[in-house]
């Protein structure tokens, strides 16, 4: 479960950024973006966050997870639409010649700190 290491790094980054900004308040919310090709599970990320946040400056903070869609661009019919998964063909015509647009990243987008 690589989500544990992802969350551990995210908590460390959040703590470093809060210290660097000299924001002494409590962390209220972390917003992350989980790319559709990242192979990370939002449920596992939440579980790891609850497990690892205890005793850190993000303990009690809300974890907001944005999951942008996977977009399929068909090389046959030109359709551009959301794809259910990376192995499905074009939702419009069923062709298998498609390109996928979607991030492989799990990114810490923002940190909300109490004033």
Overview of the molecule:
The chain has two helices and six strands; from the N terminus they run αβαβββββ. It has helices spanning 3-20, 42-53; strands at residues 27-34, 62-66, 71-74, 80-82, 98-101, 106-113. Helix 1 crosses helix 2 (42-53). It has a domain at 3-68 and 103-113: 2-Layer Sandwich (hypothetical protein PF0899 fold), CATH 3.30.2320.50. Helices cover 26% and strands 28% of the residues. It is of the alpha+beta class and 115 residues long.
Features:
alpha+beta; hypothetical protein PF0899 fold; three-stranded mixed β-sheet; 2 helices; 26% helix
Provide a count of the helices.
2
Helical content stands at 25-40%
> Strand-and-helix sequence, N→C?
HEHEEEEE
Q: What order do the strands of the largest sheet run in, or round the barrel if closed?
A: 2-1-6
* CATH fold-level label of the domain at 3-68 and 103-113: hypothetical protein PF0899 fold
- Taking all residues together, what is the mean pLDDT? 92
The count of DSSP E runs of length 2 or more, i.e. the number of strands, is 6
* Cα Rg: 18 Å
Tell me the distance between the termini: 35 Å
> Any idea what the CATH architecture of the domain at 3-68 and 103-113 is?
2-Layer Sandwich
Overall 3D shape: elongated
In terms of structural class, how would the helical and strand content be classed?
A: alpha+beta
Largest sheet: 3 strands, mixed
Unreliable stretches (pLDDT < 50, length at least 5) are none
């Amino acid at each position: 479960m690589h989500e544990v290491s992802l969350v551990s790094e995210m908590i460390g980054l959040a703590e470093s950024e809060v210290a660097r900004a000299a924001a002494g308040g409590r962390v209220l919310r972390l917003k992350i973006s989980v790319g559709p090709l990242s192979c990370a599970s939002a449920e596992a990320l939440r579980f790891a966050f609850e497990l690892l946040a205890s005793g850190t400056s993000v303990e009690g903070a809300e974890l907001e997870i944005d999951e942008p869609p996977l977009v399929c661009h068909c090389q046959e019919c030109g359709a551009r639409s959301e794809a259910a998964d990376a192995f499905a063909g074009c939702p419009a015509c069923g062709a298998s010649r498609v390109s996928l647009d979607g991030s492989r990243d799990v990114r810490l987008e923002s940190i909300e700190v109490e004033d």
